[in-house]
Amino acid sequence: MSEFKLINILNSKKITKEILVPIGDDASILKFGNKNMVVTMDSLNVNTHFSDLESPEVIGYKSLAVNISDLAAMGALPKYALLSLTINKKDRLNWIKKFNIGFKKLSKKYNIQLIGGDMNKGPISISITLFGETDNKFLQRENADVGDDIWVSGFIGESFLGFMKKNNANFKIGNNCLNEFIKKHDYPVPRVELGLKIKQFSSTCIDVSDGLLLDLQRILKQSTVGADIFLDKIPIPKKVKKDCNKNISLFFNLITGGEDYELLFTSNKKYRNRIMHLSQKLKIKLTPIGEVKKHKSLRIFDKDLKKLNLPNKLGYDHF
Ligand code: ADP
Ligand code: MG
Questions:
Q1: Residue of the nearest CA to atom 19 in ligand 1?
Q2: Which pLDDT score is estimated for 14?
Q3: What is the mean pLDDT of residues 121-141?
Q4: What is the DSSP string of 214-225?
Q5: Containing H/E element for 278?
Q6: What residues contact residue 33 under an 8 Å CB cut-off, 6+ apart?
Q7: Which atom of ligand 1 is nearest the CA belonging to 26?
Q8: CA–CA gap between residue 120 and residue 127 (Å, rounded)
Q9: How, if at all, do strands 307-308 and 263-267 pair?
């Protein structure tokens, strides 16, 4: 049974008017007086999200980064964190000191205050609840309109390449050694500033955590629309472009691999120039990759506008 179906069993569907965004988005939004509180929770577990040999500094950084990314996708500003830490290492003092170095890199950058948490003994598991705030303009997965452009930030697939390289020193594509992508996998940069800015132009947004295609499909399902995507427009790293064009399954690996933590958003075409302008101002690559359609399916076309079969797996599912 898929992750989506399992979550649906738990979904209470009871919505009070204080819950502006319930279960089903990157974060929930609650109304508190005049303010909107945005809350998300994500966990990283040993042997699922990282190996037992992973550097604690990377784990500290990444466990906060993935949560910040969910708030970025809502157009929210992160503020406070709760940290639940389960650890069974003998040298736990050292481990936690190093974990803290990674965690602090991001908490300092965004001025996020750690306000509590929990500590337990057991196989390493990190769970963070992150609180943020937003004004009355925020981004959900459910308001994409037919005709909207579909945009993505940065490059897609760098994290997949980094993951492959990290787990196999001999991994190569063509003559490229690919070492530089490990950084993108270990230290993804959440797109907070972008989320705060694009919300004035966008109808929906999601962060790409489980794969571009799967996360796009989540927007489509929740907006009850479809999309046409053009493969040659998807921003994959230049170094591997030639090889991906020759090898479609490699291309699909890059756009279903996940952990990109880029923002995928839809915007009315009238905002094209303003989004390009924003891209220059923030120095973040923003690329239109397709269009929201009335038909309800996700379709991908190659450079000759030939419709391609979708890969069996659109992205990462825990189950
Ligand atoms: P993301 O990848 O953006 O972190 P997920 O795919 O993990 O989002 O979760 C999808 C939605 O399901 C989110 O709104 C999340 O809060 C909710 N969710 C996930 N697990 C549970 C759970 N055990 N109980 C209730 N809601 C859950
Ligand atoms: Mg998300």
A1: 7
A2: 64
A3: 97
A4: HHHHHHHHHHT-
A5: helix 272-282
A6: none
A7: 3
A8: 11
A9: unpaired
